[in-house]
Amino acid sequence: MKNSTRLFWYFFLAILLASADMRASDKPVWLSNVPPAHLKKSVSSYGMHRLCTTKRKRGERGAIKVIQWVREGASVEHARYLFLSDTAGYRTFVFSPHKKKVRSKVINIKGKSVVEYPDNEEGYYNVYLVMKRVSGDTLYVDVAKAELLSHSCRNGHKNVRKEVKPKIYPEVITFEIVRERHLNEDFHFFIASGDRFTYKPMLNGKPVPGIPVTLCTEKGWSKKESTDKTGKAEFQFIQDYFTHWSEMNRRKIYYYLIYSEFTTDKSGKFQGQDYRYVHYSTSLSDGYFPSRTMYTSLVWSLIVFVVSLIVIVAGIAIFRERRKKPYKEYIFDENEDE
Amino acid sequence: MNNIRKWINNANVSRFRFWVQILTFILFVYGSYFLIHIGQNLPTFACPYNPGSPGTCFLISVQHQMHTPFSSLFSWRGLGFLTSLGSFVLFFVLFNKAWCGFMCPLGTIQDWITKLRNRLGIRFSNYDERSFKRLSWIKYVLLVLLFLIPLAIANSFFGLPKVSHNMMSPFCQICPARIILPLFSGDTSQMFINFTNTTTIVMSSLAILVLALFFVGSFVKKRFFCFFCPMSALQYLFSRIGILRLTKVGDKCTRCGNCSRVCDMGILSIAEDITSVNVVTDNCMMCFKCVEACPEEGCLDVKVFNFKIFSSTEEGFFKRYNPDGDSKELPPLNSKK
What we know:
heterodimer; A: alpha+beta; nine-stranded mixed sheet; 3 helices; B: three-stranded antiparallel sheet
């Protein structure tokens, strides 16, 4: 009886693990700038966009090493941090703002994997983690992407308009999401909650119409859209609301994740295994600030302006009035001395 | 050559200045729309908060660079600050304080307000000598704070707690250029009260108060804000190395007082000082109105190095201030207009 009970529990546990593994495969893999809570002190941050970096020793020279944490799950806040073993079948690609391939690698920090690359140029770095595996008759191609804007005002603001343009690399990255830029974007640009953006999933450098795109924010809001005929999906970020002033921190960067996936009929061979379908999946993550309208007020500034104007004008008028001397007539008697 | 010199000395420099101001206003407020990029560390209010600005005012660079720990500031990183300072000095040396008189967009706006006041017939005010001397210090205090506050954000002074990050770029937070210049590009986003916390509420309210003071002050006092401008104070520290100079030959001065009466800044020393050769003071904006109004031959000169480019002449004075002609009128001694 005891043995049969034990067998039952083993069997039950095996089913549970298998289903957990199956569910895990549906979750997007993405690159995050946020370290796990218990490792926050082991890393550092760099530049205006607070890119996560390895901690430098005192006096250490050379390029700053930016790291991006590999995570899995659609919940930005709770997605788990992954450990990639050497047999996981992944490749990393990092391209500098000037489209040069940068040497990158996956390292493990206390059991959590990160993509690491040296940062020594101003502008957008494109960081990719590509994972391929065959399961059943399907080849799964997962591309986790991060567009990381490297900028420190100390380095200047040259060729800003050119440097902020999105760049893609279809020759090595088959499927990726591109965020279209706003006209006013520069090195100081940050997405704000409430903003509207257009995203374009690109397969081999071409937009893909009619596929689902899902956006999730750190505050828990998510929205699913389909790409239109031109292969674009437009999202308006929901404006995050803060119940108490104490929750509102205009300098805090919140993060969002956008991902898209679809399956296509395409047969081939990968690492000796045949497949009939290819399942493409890609993700992109970035930061955003709370909306300015949450903490600034134009109306109040106009009220303060008008009140100040009235007080200052009244003050000057009173000052001038008080300095006016009453009219006095002096009559000189020329014969007075006589 | 003599004819060219005579033509220049008889010219109406104020009219020339008026057109230069319009052109430079377009350049510094809308330049980026014409794909012009002049550079950073400009010795004038080319405000980066304005989307049309073709460059960056040096004061914002300084405040950014001072926001650095001492250990970094006094290392190789300090070279960044020195490079910025060098670039500021290179820009400045060319035109000296004429950056204020001819090119500053905020100064130009004040001159336009003065013209409007003249049209409306409102009288203006001048500071008495005592107030003039006392108020002149304010710009130096602002200049020192502009360096110290960012330093105190990144460093602890005498074990005291660091200043809040909300005080970053403290002068920009209260500078009227940050609010006014974007308005010319149709951007009202800088006009706000920031309710994030007490510091931001105070600083943004102070900015609006300074804005109101700017408008009312410019209405009752010519070039009101220039008197408190830390850029003017910083420029004066390097004024001696400027290649554009304003000099005076004291022996030729009759102390008629024309120069100080036409001075928008109300500088008395230009009339009273007959010993100094260099008459550029911290409040001077090198508009050269004094040279125009001086009737003494070669008493006041504008020079590039030692080469005279514009001198006071009797003929030029009468041509400009001829009461029978269509030219302007010199304000009488007790003028308030």
